[in-house]
Amino acid sequence: MRRLLWRLLIVVAAGVALFFWFGANLERFVNRVDAVVLPGVTEEALRIHDESLVVDLHADSLLFDRDLSVRSDIGHVDLPRLREGGVALQMFTAATRMPFTFDIHEVDANGSDILTVGFVAQRAPMAGMGPRDRALHQAGRLGELIESSEGAVMPVRTRADLDAAIAAHRENSDVVGVIFGIEGAHALEGDLDNLPVLFDAGVRMIGLAHFFDNEFAGSAHGIEKGGLSDLGRELIARMEAMGIAIDLAHLSPTAIDDVLAIANKPLLVSHTGVRATCDSPRNLSDEHIRAIANTGGAIGIGYFELAICGTNPTEIVAAMKHVIELVGDEHVALGSDYDGGTEVAFDTSQLRALTQQMLDDGLSEESIRKIAGENAIRVLRRTLPRR
Ligand SMILES: [Zn+2]
Questions:
Q1: Pick from 180, 158, 170: which is nearest to 53 by CA?
Q2: Tell me: the pLDDT tens digits for 282-317?
Q3: Can you point out the beta strands (E) in the chain?
Q4: Alpha-carbon distance 92 to 61, whole Å?
Q5: Can you list the positions of beta strands (E) in 124-267?
Q6: Alpha-carbon gap, residue 349 to 305, rounded angstroms
Q7: Which of 22, 55, 135, 382 could pair with 373 as two cysteines, CB 3.0-4.6 Å apart?
Q8: Is there a domain that residue 9 lies in?
Q9: Rounded distance, CA 101 to CA 112, Å?
Q10: 100 vs 1, 10, 77, 136, CA distance in Å?
Q11: How far is the CA of 183 from the centre of ligand 1 (A)?
Q12: In this structure, is residue 23 part of a structural domain?
């Protein structure tokens, strides 16, 4: 009996050790870089890239317990790698809840939260927090990065901040602007009084839904896949008044229609693909691409499987070219979904490979500059509060 107890104890201890080992190495499993052969970067691509303002609309790096001021070979984004990739402005987004599912196209909002398991395994403080506090915690982590950078990481909360960060980056390419958003309005916990709390923490973009339907809007992966609720309409009016951009990524087609009917400002899709090149329910139809372009908006093309049905730079550029063919080059942007539990072909330090691919696939220098960042900046100028 005693021997059996010992054996049981050893098995349990090994299980616990394995769980925390998995937690410590979580990003090695979930945020991977594929072994894809990237195009060699020519002088011309190098020049165009380094003269462009590079802006990425979506990275979930704050979700993981990694010091973003230190260069890592894990995951996709940290400050040294942003600098190596010549990035001028990075949007960091806070994911705060993700129900566990075997079917990504029908996610039950009441399912147990897979992020909690990850946080416990990482022994991260977010394990015991609700969605709002998880968003605030991630805002705090970004704040620490800004603080420790001694001016080299500039927070962008207003149009004046945006102009200042761009000017500083032009002066010294080591300066990187950062902007904060949340992935899924469920972080408001159904209470619009949480909107000013999140705004004060720096939130300037909200993806209305993530992988499940919430009180505000239906998700492309939800069970109902419905439109906007009355509360969702109220949220949009308040976001536009405050200066928070609306992100349509992950929204159900019906919810996108509902937003298009009432939005007054240009819309963003922070990380997506297009159905024409990758027919997944989370990707945009041609009709929606045209309508989003009509708002003056920008569509961030993702680098991951669910967005482009592959990870190869050629597949990213194919999605970009489809949008250009439909609505011109003013509405395409970069929307990596770095560190979002994604497998990609290159991390942010290797972004010049994407510029090379755009050049190889016949995009003009002018189009490349717009896609690299000018389009995203134009939209942010229209959505950020003046001061
Ligand atoms: Zn996402």
A1: 170
A2: 999 999 999 999 999 999 999 999 999 999 999 999
A3: 32-33, 54-59, 87-95, 153-155, 176-183, 203-207, 245-247, 268-272, 298-301, 332-334, 343-344
A4: 7
A5: 153-155, 176-183, 203-207, 245-247
A6: 20
A7: 55
A8: no
A9: 9
A10: 38, 29, 25, 23
A11: 7
A12: no
Q: CA separation (Å) from 93 to 27, 179, 187?
A: 17, 8, 12
Q: Report how far ligand 1's centroid is from the alpha carbon of 289 (Å).
A: 18
The amino acid that residue 283 corresponds to is N
Q: Is residue 10 part of a domain?
A: no
CA of 357 to the centre of ligand 1 (A): 24
Q: How far is the CA of 125 from the centre of ligand 1 (A)?
A: 22
**Which residues lie closer than 8 Å to 143 by C-beta, 6 or more apart?**
155, 202
Residue 19 confidence (pLDDT) above 90: no
C-alpha distances (whole Å) from 282 to each of 40, 94, 245, 254 are 32, 19, 19, 12
* Residue 370 within any structural domain of the chain: yes
Beta strands in 37-162 (DSSP E): 54-59, 87-95, 153-155
User: 329-349 burial string, b = 16+ CB within 10 Å, else e?
Assistant: bbbbbbbbbbbbbbebbbbbb
Question: CA-CA distance, 272 to 279, in Å (whole number)?
Answer: 12
Q: What is the per-residue pLDDT across 308-347, written as a single tens digit (0 to 9) for each?
A: 999 999 999 999 999 999 999 999 999 999 999 999 999 9
Does residue 173 sit in helix, strand or coil?
coil
Residue 314 φ then ψ, to 5°: -60, -35
Report how far apart, in Å, the C-alpha atoms of 291 and of each of 135, 266, 283 are.
Answer: 30, 10, 14
- Number of independent structural domains in the chain: 1
C-alpha of residue 87 to centroid of ligand 1, in Å:
21
Please tell me the distance between residue 334's alpha carbon and the centre of ligand 1 in angstroms.
14
User: What DSSP state is assigned to residue 339?
Assistant: T
Can you tell me the distance from the alpha carbon of 165 to that of 156, in angstroms, rounded to the nearest whole number? 7
Block residue for tokens 């599912």? 101
Q: How far is the CA of 208 from the centre of ligand 1 (A)?
A: 11
Domain that residue 339 falls in: 31-383
